[in-house]
Design brief:
Layout lengths: L2 H5 L5 E3 L8 H9 L4 E4 L5 H14 L4 E6 L8 H17 L18 H7 L6 E5 L5 H9 L3 E6 L2 H9 L4 E5 L5 E2 L14 H11 L4 E4 L5 H9 L4 E4 L1 H4 L8 H7 L7 E4 L7 E4 L2 H5 L12 H16 L21 H20 L1
Parallel strand pairs: 1-9, 2-3, 3-4, 4-5, 5-6, 6-8, 8-9
Antiparallel strand pairs: 7-11, 10-11
Helix pairs in contact: 2-3, 3-5, 4-13, 9-14
Length: 354
């Protein structure tokens, strides 16, 4: 089945949900231009989620996707957290952050019955998950609305697991992708491979449609993914540079700089591996990475620093989430970007077939 038929969209292009750097405006722009816009919900409390869903539903008649993280809240490790708070003390001091005012605890909650209750009023066309899937009962409830369920796989084993547990499509996330890795069966980075290697293996391993993600930022990448058997693509970093994203000024400047050619996989910002443009913080704290608290405890400790850095224009203390194709991005409206992707992909496929 084609991605357009599965989701009821015109274009086989999914805008990746990017928590912290976008809200409904980007999702609306993409959906209204024919792609599948996505709303990241991992950082939204029920009240904010309700407002964002209402804005989406009120702004488009086209399908859209809402995305949630799926993680088991970790047990508190007071000793490790105290050690890491001490390690971060110079950074708190740099921005005048009162470390004692930072609440203990995860700060982010996974997909729950209460969240599903909020979604029930809207029943979006697509609900996507990162880090696996929620409880089977919750998956069944989402599917009972007629919503399609998709999730990220970073290995063939994860793709097969997702198919067995009822997803309607698999996002094959290559190691080039920016932001958090979708790993959930293992934390071993040696299992992670590039998009060009992962996509054809996942296409061969599962019967559901496959969405390629990671390192795709122009139409040539779209064409390559379709040639490898993907039914569509998911793009994040390219949309991060658009006018409708909420990326901070220092983040946008970093994306456009030569430094964007160097990215690292790091647990420093949240406690889970994510791909960021390398900066002062990733270099200064690299030796302490193995000691960071689990996700999302580390995220809660870092959030005040990241917010202060964004407000002050300091890219050296930010999580500059970015894929490895950042050099292919440029500022423009989301609709213009989609048009360019379609044109370039068509040209690339015509050259292949000619």
């Amino acid at each position: 089945m084609s991605l357009a038929s599965l989701f009821g969209v015109e274009l086989p292009i999914v805008q990746a949900p990017m928590a912290g750097v976008q809200l409904h405006a980007l999702a609306l722009a993409v959906s209204n231009a024919g792609g599948l816009g996505s709303l990241p919900c991992a950082m939204l409390d029920p009240a904010a989620l309700g407002r964002e869903l209402a804005a989406l539903a009120g702004g488009t008649r086209h399908p859209f996707n809402v995305n949630f993280f799926v993680h088991v809240p970790p047990a508190q490790d007071a000793a490790r957290e105290a050690t890491w708070r001490a390690a971060l003390a110079p950074y708190y001091a740099e921005f005048g952050v009162d470390a004692h005012a930072i609440a203990a605890g995860p700060g982010r909650q996974p997909f729950t019955k209460e969240v599903a209750d909020v979604l029930d009023a809207i029943r979006p066309a697509v609900v996507s998950f990162h880090f696996g899937l929620p409880d089977p009962g919750l998956v069944a409830r989402v599917k009972s609305w007629g919503s399609k369920v998709i999730s990220s796989a970073t290995t063939v084993d994860e793709a097969r697991w997702l198919e067995r547990h009822g997803v309607d499509a698999v996002i094959a996330q290559g190691i080039e992708a920016g932001g958090h890795r979708g790993m959930f069966l293992t934390g071993d980075l040696t299992t992670q491979v590039g998009t060009l290697a992962l996509v054809p293996q996942v296409v061969r391993a599962v019967r559901v449609p496959v969405i390629a993600a990671g390192g795709i930022a122009d139409g040539r990448g779209v064409a390559a993914a379709l040639t490898l058997g993907a039914s569509g693509v998911q793009i994040g970093t390219g949309f991060l540079a658009t006018a409708e994203s909420n990326a901070s000024a220092p983040h946008r400047a970093a994306l456009a700089s030569p430094g964007a050619r160097v990215t690292v996989l790091t647990r420093l910002f949240s406690g889970r591996h994510g791909r960021s443009i390398a900066n002062g913080f990733t270099r200064e704290m690299a030796s302490a990475e193995a000691e960071v608290p689990a996700y999302p405890l580390q995220n809660a400790l870092m959030l005040p620093i990241r917010r202060a850095a964004a407000a002050s224009g300091n890219p050296d203390r930010l999580n500059l989430w970015s894929g490895q194709a950042a050099a292919l991005t440029r500022p423009r409206a989301a609709a213009e970007y989609l048009e360019t992707l379609v044109r370039e992909a068509g040209e690339a496929l015509a050259r292949r077939d000619g």
